[in-house]
Amino acid sequence: MEKKSSIVKRTAEEWLEFGDEEFNKGDYETAFQYYKNAIGENASSPFAYFKAGNALTMLKRWNEAIKYFVGTITLDPTFSFAYYKKGQCHLELLQINEAIKEFTIAVEINPNFALAYYRRGYCLYLAKKFEDAIADFSKAIELNPSHAEPYIYRGNCFFHLGNNELAIKDYDKAIELDPDNPKVFISRGVVNIKLANYKEAIGDFTLAISIDQNNYLAYNYRGFCLNQLRQFELAIEDFLRVIELKSNFVDAYNNVGIAYVGLKKYDKALEYFDKATEINPKSATIYFNRGNANLHLKNYVEAIIDYDKALTIEPNYAYAYYGRGNANFALEQYRDALRDYSKAIALNPNFYNAYIARGNVYLKMKHLKRALEDFTTAIELAPENPFGYLNRAIAYRTDNIYSYAASDFNEFLRLYGKEDKLSEKVRTWIRNMGYNPEY
Fold first, then answer.
1. Which pairs with CB-CB distance under 8 Å and at least 24 residues apart come from 138-144?
2. What CA dihedral angle connects 113, 116, 122 and 126, to 10 degrees?
3. How far apart are CA 19 and CA 47, in angstroms?
4. pTM
5. What does the pLDDT average to over 402-412?
6. What pLDDT sits at residue 30?
7. Which residue stretches of 76-129 are H helix?
8. CA nearest neighbour of 65 among 54, 75, 78
9. Residue of 171, 76, 82, 157 whose CA lies nearest to 123
10. What is the pLDDT of the chain when averaged over all its residues?
11. Cα–Cα distance between 242 and 83 in angstroms, integer?
């Protein structure tokens, strides 16, 4: 394309027109050069500075663009859109506080500037100032009720503040306004995950995928929901699709490993946990998950190493202490197991399984009174869980306290409600003590 010669004398207005032509064609570099020529002809034109800065934003040359917007504002301090564009540049550079200042000036000059309220709200959202962000998004919605984005991010703020009902209401409105935006379906799906509405969440993520088949987050979230519903093969398909789209997305490898644990394919799980640790060697969760896989494979020493790594990264990881306690228990290192379970309980006083596990260690060590205390605490924490009664009954039976044992065994049968080898074994134990099963 033949460029306009800078040798021929042109007016600033002509250079602006030439720049606008190239800008509209998408040739932002040439447009910028023409706008610069306009500034050369008329250095007092705020529009020339503004258009030059705008062309630079299209080229993602944010720092250069800021200088031209400063030129605009210097010449015309009431140019609200220049403050807005300058704020956008700061936002792109993740200079959040600077961006907030610019958007604030923009709305002070023009109180009806909906986009500036939206952008300032977005900055406040990134800064986790959710209540302030809600105020800005609400003002943006008041000024422009047909713009979907403020509803999405106001919904996100409500979600972070724990108001799931208002979050979903905003997402529903955003979907009504912009049904082709996958982001809003993902946001609503995340709220449904929080509410344990996994089937509804799967529907949201599937809609997001129907709009954007390369949206790896939607596949990852849908796979997570399928894992929760124990549909592990389908979950693996989604996670492998994530890996295909984003090969270093560590969550996908970790999630595939979790799915294979669900399928009891522990060797396969280890493969993916190994890959996850290669990508992110500083994730306590991944080492914990790999420790669990090793525990299932009876690789107890390897499991302990993994739990140790998890605890090095996250020293207050109650579940890692519990897992390491299980490995130590399997190795008959009861004192180490006792110490681990006790630490898990200290970190999480409502840790049901840790009380059951510690009670069984005390039982092995013949500390019957302490075992009974732990089993009783577990029952108090979860009175509808049958296994607390089962373990306490075994402890009573060990000490020949048969009446209490029979009572707890019967309570186990009532709550368990299944007909299998375990329930039949419990009935046999009751009869052998001279009592009758009630269930």
1. 139/114, 140/114, 140/115, 143/112, 143/113, 143/114, 143/117, 144/114, 144/115
2. -140
3. 12
4. 0.82
5. 97
6. 96
7. 80-92, 96-109, 114-126
8. 54
9. 157
10. 96
11. 39
